[in-house]
Structure to design on (248 residues):
């Protein structure tokens, strides 16, 4: 059953049929500056976005101060011995929430970190942060269903294309996403995130049942947008996705 908490439900319902813009910049990105994520968020609000997705306590705090839109927060932490990098610890989740993110995103895949599955962190975060809205980032239907059963408020295929089983994927699996919407929409809010590059792609997802759509690279990472063009014009000799997936 979807949350009955009136505060949480008001935030989640405000996303309906809307665009959430992922406003992130890493220190090794060519567009990086401390103020860049804030400018991205201000541009997204100007355009009519209903929410922001942001990375790291510092960037979340700055965006929260400048833009009055709900924030989906995460904390990307890369380690050499695991592919789990989205809010991989309880401490990271707490930092994200305390920085001003009403919604905390977690890796809820079956990837392993520190000898256990990533999704095993979810109950710990839910217990520690009962007032937070939890967004389960998954890579397939099976993981989505499990996350919803654990009590996720939002679920989305954010990590489709980032796990070992899906790493060669470029386009979204709309058939599987439609199944998520049909089967899980009464229990949680199903949001599309990942591999959405045009307004038409986003609208397809709304038509299939998405509560909202998150778009990042196509809007806020112009270096990757340019590289997609270069990749095609060079005959697919230099895969732009390698840069999108790299550890920072």
């Amino acid at each position: 059953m979807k949350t009955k908490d009136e505060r949480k439900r008001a935030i989640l319902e405000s996303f309906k049929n809307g665009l959430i813009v992922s406003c992130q910049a890493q220190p090794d990105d060519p567009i990086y500056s401390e103020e860049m994520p804030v400018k991205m968020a201000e541009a997204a609000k100007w355009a009519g976005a209903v929410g922001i997705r942001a990375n790291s306590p510092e960037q979340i705090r700055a965006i929260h101060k400048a833009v009055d839109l709900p924030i989906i927060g995460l904390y990307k932490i890369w380690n050499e011995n695991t592919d789990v990098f989205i809010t991989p610890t309880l401490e990271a989740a707490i930092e994200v929430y305390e920085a001003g993110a009403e919604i905390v995103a977690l890796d809820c895949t079956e990837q392993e970190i520190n000898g256990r599955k990533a999704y095993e962190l979810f109950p710990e975060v839910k217990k520690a942060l009962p007032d937070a809205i939890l967004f389960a980032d998954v890579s397939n239907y099976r993981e989505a269903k499990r996350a919803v059963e654990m009590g996720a408020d939002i679920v989305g295929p954010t990590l489709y294309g980032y796990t070992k089983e899906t790493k060669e994927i470029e386009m979204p699996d709309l058939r599987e996403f439609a199944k998520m919407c049909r089967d899980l929409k009464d229990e949680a809010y199903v949001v599309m995130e990942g591999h959405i590059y045009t307004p038409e792609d986003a609208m397809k997802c709304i038509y299939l049942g998405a509560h909202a759509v998150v778009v990042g690279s196509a809007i806020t990472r112009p270096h990757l947008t340019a590289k997609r063009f270069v990749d095609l014009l060079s005959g697919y000799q230099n895969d732009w996705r390698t840069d999108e997936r790299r550890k920072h």
Summary: The domain at 6-221 is CATH 3.20.20.70 (TIM Barrel). The chain has one domain: 6-221. Residues 36-47 form the longest helix (12 residues). The beta strands are 18-22, 51-55, 71-74, 103-107, 112-113, 116-117, 133-137, 154-156, 189-193, 212-215.
